[in-house]
Write a structure and sequence with these properties.
43% helix, TIM Barrel, binds zinc ion, 761 residues, alpha/beta, globular, 22 strands, binds glutamine
Length: 761
């Protein structure tokens, strides 16, 4: 390849947790005090040079720098511009202060709470939400950032610094209202200007500036702030690439194309007409096309992508840049580490490193012609064909059956009022019945038993015996505490999605598919590669055993279709909706088997229900329609006297309350403590018809709640929801807590229920 025809290729960011999560281990050792600051820095540095090396190796011309963070890049941005709440004391941009923003601190016996976390758009990454204060001056404190840039430039002078855009930063912050946040735009732009000037003196030519909020429904005031802000931060000699991702620009395309910057990056995975965007762009600007899906673990269909790019390249020539759609932060590092997945699958995985190679092939295909990369294209096509022909990829019988589902009524046979009467006749529950959300402490012994079974160190019989002993223990404790609806405790589950994935056809698991969730925490979602099908009951034996031990109802416990979907990596050849229905059908069979086994209460957890909401309001209705339908399908056949519960944590319900009601669960338990029952207002105002169990203590904190704390919360709840439809329960499952915390907490909860019940009677 000659220099003159080389096309500019780049990435918006790369996983920072490192190969085999090296940074995670280093961070956690450092926090424990078993690794020195110098050793932590050394690990991070070798991580970063590996990333530059990977880019060079794959011939990617402009690797990113500054996307790296020891914890979170939004918190780094807050520190760099001095936007740290005063409760933290020091605002200096140091590594220790970054860790304090993420982890909080105890100073002289009192706790400084960390910044809140929020999902980064519709990804599973959580950023720290900056808290702004009006009188906190914006100032530039960029040494840590500039050091990273110097380090990268020494290795590759083409490295491209990455910045969070000033308006995205302000928009995602809290603490001030809209006007208050926008009032900071001028000062922030001035500080960005100063930073860009410093980058120029280091020899930087291109800077990437991320404004993903341009893909949202932005209020006018924010849209209007773009033009003046970007004028102010301009520095002669520095070219800016404005990046947008996670969605189409839609109405904002004219604005994005006209801003005083030198290039625009768009997410081609969701932009249907690339030429239309190219046509909007002034002649001097570059268009960076995010052609490879930066969040998909699947190998791309390179031949098709090349065809898509060809007319755009014909139009733009060297003004066309190629990149993945978004930062590769949301992918695991290297699919070559997956030595245990079957070949047909591994050959089709493309993690961050593989994406670099795919990008380079597309660039060569454009500049040298498709023939030059014919072998690579053929290889991609062949790998995909192998996957497509894999038994289990398409299950025609299931597909035909799913087809009929859309025609099938998803309502239960009788309305809530009739069901409630049948359930009351069956269970004879007291007023303000008490329950828990499902899991009980996952003790060291439980984990050890699961692990030993997995590693075949104990037999299936031994494993079953130890789980049964645990279930018995949990049932006895709950009876002793005096709870009204019991649970089996979920000891057999390592994870609420993985447990079901392991038993369903169509799922696969990885060894190294870790993705950063927040700070040093990573998740390893299962992969849905084939049609999801239930070959055999998944929970019935455990639930039936638990129910055999008590006269009280023991809830069957399932993870809902929407949550299983959103917490997995999904196949790219079927719409999410279709995958969700397959899962729903598997769950329907499970619900029916549970009901037939005499389980009278079945909980279908949907903590991800709200998470699945699309970024743009216009897309909400279709999503909510299929998500509601999938949930309802799962429980549609449950007889009237089977009580269906659902559970949702970290949700706000105001804007989706109609859909929550449409789920028509007999009981919904929600997390309400941290909002001091405020979240119940949505239910009260809507006159939500079914039963609700607001969480009355926060299970995330180690403190044991007292009767004095719990009672006013329940009373508050009783003001909003009639007592006949009110349950009492903790905010969420108890798996992360210890028995010494759980028992007195639940005792206090039951004491409050008994007291208020007496008063009602
Ligand atoms: N049933 C699950 C548990 O108790 C629910 C977990 C969740 O809501 N995230 O652990
Ligand atoms: Zn929960």
């Amino acid at each position: 390849m000659t220099q003159s025809t080389q096309m500019t290729t780049h990435t918006l960011g790369f996983p920072r947790i490192g190969e085999r999560r090296v940074l995670k281990w280093a961070l956690e050792s450092y926090w424990r005090g078993t690794l020195s600051a110098a050793e932590l820095q050394a690990t991070a540095k070798s991580n970063r040079s590996q990333i530059l090396h990977d880019h060079a190796q794959a011939n990617i011309t402009r690797p990113p720098v500054g996307d790296f963070s020891f914890y979170d890049h939004i918190a780094d941005t807050a520190l760099m511009f001095g936007q740290v709440p005063s409760r933290f004391g020091s605002t200096a941009n140091t590594l220790e202060n970054l860790f304090t923003l993420g982890r909080g601190k105890n100073i002289d016996g009192h706790n400084i709470a960390p910044l809140a976390m929020k999902k980064w758009f519709n990804s599973n990454y959580h950023y720290l939400v900056p808290e702004l204060e009006a009188d906190q001056a914006v100032r530039l404190d960029a040494d840590r950032y500039l050091d990273l840039v110097r380090e990268a430039l020494a290795i590759n002078p083409q490295a491209k610094p990455v910045l969070v855009g000033p308006l995205t930063f302000l928009y995602l912050s809290r603490g001030l209202d809209e006007a208050g946040r926008l009032a900071k735009a001028d000062a922030l732009a001035a500080a960005y200007h100063q930073l860009l000037s410093e980058l120029k003196t280091l020899g930087v030519t291109w800077v990437q500036i991320d404004e993903p909020i341009l893909t949202l429904d932005l209020p006018t005031a924010w849209l209007q702030a773009f033009e003046p802000t970007y004028h102010r931060l301009k520095v002669a000699g520095i070219k800016l690439l404005l990046t947008t991702y996670f969605g189409e620009l839609n109405g904002n395309v004219a604005l994005a194309a006209s801003l005083p910057v030198d290039g625009l990056h768009i997410d081609a995975t969701v932009t249907s007409d690339l030429i239309a965007v190219a046509d909007r762009l002034p002649d001097y600007k570059v268009l960076s096309v995010g052609i490879i899906d930066g969040r998909s673990i699947w190998r791309a269909d390179l031949a098709t992508l090349l065809q898509r790019l060809t007319p755009v390249y014909a139009r733009l020539q060297e003004r066309l840049w190629l990149a993945p759609s978004c930062s590769l932060l949301h992918l695991p590092v290297d699919a070559d580490f997956e030595t245990k997945t079957p070949d047909f699958l591994r050959n089709n995985l493309s993690y961050a490193r593989q994406k670099l190679g795919e990008l380079a092939i597309l660039a060569r295909g454009l500049t040298e012609g498709a023939a030059a990369v014919a072998a690579e294209l053929a290889q991609a096509t062949a790998a995909r064909a192998e996957l497509d022909h894999q038994p289990g990829r398409v299950n025609p019988v299931l597909r035909a059956h799913i087809e009929t589902l859309t025609a099938r009524p998803s309502n239960r046979a009788e309305p809530f009022v009739a069901r409630a009467a049948a359930q009351q006749a069956r269970f004879n529950l007291p007023l303000l019945p008490t329950t828990t959300i499902g899991s009980f402490p996952q003790t060291h012994e439980i984990r050890a038993a699961r692990k030993a079974f997995k590693n075949k160190e104990i037999s299936a019989d031994q494993y079953e015996a130890s789980m049964k002993a645990e279930i018995k223990h949990v049932i006895q404790i709950q009876e002793k505490i005096g709870l009204d609806a019991l649970v089996h405790g979920e000891a057999e589950r390592n994870d609420m999605v993985e447990y079901f994935g392991e038993q369903l056809d169509g799922f696969a698991f990885t060894q190294e598919g870790w993705v950063q969730s927040y700070g040093s925490r990573c998740v390893k979602p299962p992969i849905i590669w084939g049609d999801v099908h239930r070959a055999k009951p998944m929970t019935v034996a455990w639930s039936a055993y638990a129910q055999s031990l008590s006269q009280l109802p023991v809830k069957g416990m399932l993870t809902g279709p929407v949550t299983i979907l959103f917490w997995s990596f999904v196949r790219d050849d079927l719409p999410r909706e279709a995958i969700c229905y397959q899962i729903a059908e598997a769950l329907r069979q499970e619900v029916n088997d549970l009901a037939a086994a005499g389980i009278g209460m079945i909980q279908v957890d949907e903590p991800a229900f709200r998470e699945g909401l699309p970024l743009r309001k216009k897309d909400w209705a279709p999503y909510l329609a299929w998500a509601v339908r999938a949930f309802k399908h799962s429980v549609a056949d449950a007889p009237s006297d089977v009580q269906i519960h659902t559970h949702m944590c970290y949700s706000e319900f105001n804007d989706i309350i109609e859909s929550i009601a449409a789920l028509d669960a007999d009981v919904i338990t929600i997390e309400t403590t941290r909002s001091n029952m405020k979240l119940l207002d949505a239910f009260a105002q809507f006159a939500y018809p079914n039963a609700i169990g607001p969480g009355i203590y926060d299970i995330h904190a180690p403190q044991i709640p007292t009767v004095e704390e719990i009672e006013p919360r329940v009373k508050l709840a009783m003001e909003k929801i009639p007592a006949e439809r009110l349950w009492i329960n903790p905010d969420c499952g108890l798996k992360t807590r210890t028995w010494t915390e759980v028992i007195p907490s639940l005792e206090a909860m039951v004491a409050v229920a008994l007291k208020l019940r007496k008063a009602l009677n």
